[in-house]
Structures are given as C-alpha cells and as structure tokens.
Write a structure and sequence with these properties.
The chain is an alpha+beta fold. It is 52% helix and 14% strand. It has twelve helices and ten strands. The strands form three sheets. It has a four-stranded mixed sheet with strand order 1-4-5-8. A four-stranded antiparallel sheet has the order 2-3-7-6, with no helix packed on it. Strands 9-10 form a two-stranded antiparallel ribbon. Strand 2 and strand 3 form a beta hairpin. The longest helix has 37 residues. The chain is globular and about 80 Å long. Pathway: Lipid metabolism; mitochondrial fatty acid beta-oxidation. It is an enzyme of class 1 (oxidoreductase). Its EC number is 1.3.8.1.
Length: 411
C-alpha cells in the first residue's frame, strides 16, 4: 500500500515537472510520433501516391497538363479541405495531418503535392480561420468540393518586401475598387477565387495593407499567360503560374478579411503556415530522389559490382538519407508547434536539403540523371523551386536569427 501510494505520488510529481518543462520550453518536448489518425492519413496518401500519382508524374510533367483527374480524386477523398471545419465540407484535421499528406503526395508527383499544399495552407485555412460566416459560404464551401483557391501577394516590384505592394484598394460606399497587378499566382488559370492583398495608401507601407476575397470571374480580373519557370511551374510543367491584373474591379466591402491595416499581419501569418506545406513538399521530393537513387544503384553495375557496393555511392546515399530525415523532423515540429521561427527553419532546411539530395541523385545516375527519360532531373527541378516560393532561403535565415535573438532578449 505504501509503495503503491509512493509510486502514485512520484508519478504525480513527475507529471507536474513535465508540465512545467512543457510551459518553459516547448521545443524540448517535441515528439515525431504520429497518432493513429495521422498514420491513417499518411497511409492513405501514400497508397494514392503510389497508385495514381507516381505512374503519371513524368507524363504530366512532360506534357504540361494540370492534374485535373488527380485533384478530383483528392477532393473526393477530403484532401482539398483537410483543416477546414466539417460544417463547411472539410475534415477538421490538424496541420501535421496536412503536412504528412503533402509529403506523401509530393513524393509521387511534386506538382499535385504543390497544388494540394497551396490550396490547404494558403487559401482554405485562411478563409476557414479568419472569414466571416458569409465569406465562408461564398468562398469556402465550394472550395472543399473541387473549386481551386489562389493566393495573390507578390507583385512585379514587391516579392519579399511585402510592404511595397502597389495594388490599390479604394473604398466607394459599400464597395471596394481594386487596381493593380499580381505576379506568380499559382493555379490562377484553373482557380475560381483569389485572396488579394492591396493597400489603401502606398505611403503607409505595411500599415495600409488589407486582405480581400475576389471571385476570379469578377469584371476587370484578367489572367496573364503561364509563366515560364524552371521548377514545377514551368510553362510545360503541370502546375500553372501567371500574372493577374485588376482593372477597376468592384467587389462588396463585405469581402474584406479583417480590417484595413491588418493585411500585413494576415499575410505574414499565412506565410508561416504555407512554409510548413512547402517544407513538407520539399521532404516528399527529397524522399522521391532518394528512392530513385537507391533503386538505380541496386540495379546498375560498375567496375564489376553493384553501385551500392561502391563507397562513394554509399556515402552519397547516407548523406541523402540523413538530410531527408533531418528535414522531415523539422517539418513535423513546425506543423506541431506553429511559429515563424519553426516554419522558417523547416523551410530553410527542407528546401536546401531537398536540392542537395536531388543533386546527389543526378550524380549517382550520371548521364542518365540529365535525361528527361529518367526522374532524377525532374526531382532536381522540383527541389530547387522550394528554396524560392513562400520566401527565399535568405529571408528564412534572417527570420530564424531574428526570433532566436528575440527569445534570448539579445536584440
């Protein structure tokens, strides 16, 4: 009895200590273990990726076809509104569930994984978390059933420097009139609505920004041509990106998300979440490159032995595995403990590591690594883009440093 009571007392004390540690330093309590539901999502995405994405990825890439059939299937499975409330057609899942799904889908087809990631992490989650009931009815319900949402932030002269946005919003009674141009808007050609950031006065910089929901078929909204880019969004690749121009676009004032002056904060918050998706996207590409390299090295012979018996190839495969797993752990942590520092760290490492892993893959395949008949060169193109969109690696490094010093009162 005494021993039992003592054990309970010690166990209770340890629980209190653990709770204290959690509140003091959450980063020290992170675990990469997925729960049953997350494992189920992971396996479902993995099976879909192996059966429906991987066999078609090369063809979609070479022919530059948007993966309509694959996105339709993912919509039917509930993957295009994973974190959305069930009342609006979503599944109400957490960000780690979305991240593991993005990773597995990107492993099979980077283009499909990117479309799903941006739709979930940049569009539906913003409307779900910050939209009014009216906005959700108009701009969310259909977007868990097949409609594609887009995020329009960057401009010809405003990329990383969001405060330099020049697209203007002029209030006219119960309406807002938008004028300006957005660049690199992914899925805009297929999209049905946009999240648009505009300023009421460019001189106010970030204090003048506001966020708006804009139907793509609104009068005065013009799509540009597909942008010729190197990565998954190249003109002959499966993901589209184009400019979107607004000429006297008149929308109800009720389509504004939040208030004037809150646009910058909303945009930064969305990018924090989007970087989780981009990091997961990069991890999936890295895993695909590692799988490709191992598969090739197991079959290819040189100097009388399999490539896997060569120490130089073994070293590369080992580095590839370590870099992929490191990026995966940082991504899972960012999805579990969402913050600017964590998401920037995950994207920084995942993007750089995916590019390095894909480079190793090309090197192991040698001449075949440069051929479009093999997957290695596609993995490299796809990986390189993850260091650019969602905030370049240079910006991520600065953000991590800033918040590190802020945590230690060293600024």
């Amino acid at each position: 009895m005494v021993a039992g009571a003592l054990f309970k007392s010690v166990k209770s004390s340890l629980s209190l200590v653990q709770c204290a540690k959690t509140s003091i330093s959450r980063v020290r309590t992170f675990t990469s273990v997925l729960n049953d539901q997350q494992h189920e999502i992971q396996e479902l995405a993995k099976q879909f990726s192996d059966e429906h994405l991987k066999p078609n990825a090369k063809k979609l890439d070479l022919e530059g076809r948007f993966p309509f059939d694959q996105i339709k299937r993912l919509t039917d499975m509930g993957f295009m509104g994973m974190a959305v409330e069930e009342a609006y057609g979503g599944r109400g899942l957490d960000y780690l569930s979305v991240a593991v799904a993005v990773e597995e889908l990107s492993r099979g087809c980077a283009s499909t994984g990117m479309i799903m990631s941006l739709h979930n992490f940049l569009y539906t989650n913003l409307v779900n978390e910050k939209g009014t009931p009216q906005q959700k009815e108009i701009f969310l319900c259909d977007f868990t059933r097949g409609a594609i949402g887009c995020f329009a932030l960057s401009e010809p002269d405003a990329g990383s420097d969001v405060a330099s946005i020049k697209t203007t919003a002029t209030f006219d009674g119960d309406h807002v009139i938008l004028n300006g141009k957005k660049s690199w808007v992914s899925s805009a050609i297929e999209g049905s609505a946009l999240i648009v950031f505009a300023t009421v006065d460019p001189a106010l910089r970030h204090k003048g920004l506001a966020c708006f929901l804009v139907p793509m078929d609104a009068e005065g909204v013009f799509r540009g041509k597909k942008q010729p880019l190197m990565s998954v969004s190249e003109f002959d690749r499966a993901v589209t990106a184009c400019d979107v121009t607004f000429e006297e676009v008149r929308i109800p004032k009720s389509y504004m998300v939040g208030q004037v002056g809150e646009g910058f904060k909303i945009a930064m918050g969305q990018l924090d979440q989007a970087r989780i998706g981009i990091a997961a996207h990069a991890v999936g590409i890295a895993q695909a490159a590692l799988d490709t390299a191992i598969g090739y090295a197991k079959e290819r012979e040189a100097f009388g032995k399999k490539l896997t018996r060569l120490s130089s190839v073994q070293d590369r495969l080992t580095e590839m595995s370590i870099m992929t797993e490191t990026a995966r752990l940082l991504t899972y942590r960012a999805a579990t403990q969402v913050s600017t520092k964590n998401s920037s760290m995950a994207k920084y490492v995942a993007g750089k590591n995916a590019t390095a892993v894909a480079d190793h893959c090309v090197q192991i395949l040698g001449g075949r690594g440069l051929a479009t008949t093999h997957n290695a060169e596609r993995h490299y193109r796809d990986a390189r883009g993850t260091q650019i969109y969602g905030g370049v690696t240079d910006i991520q490094k600065r953000l991590v440093g800033h918040y590190l010093l802020k945590e230690h009162d060293a600024l």
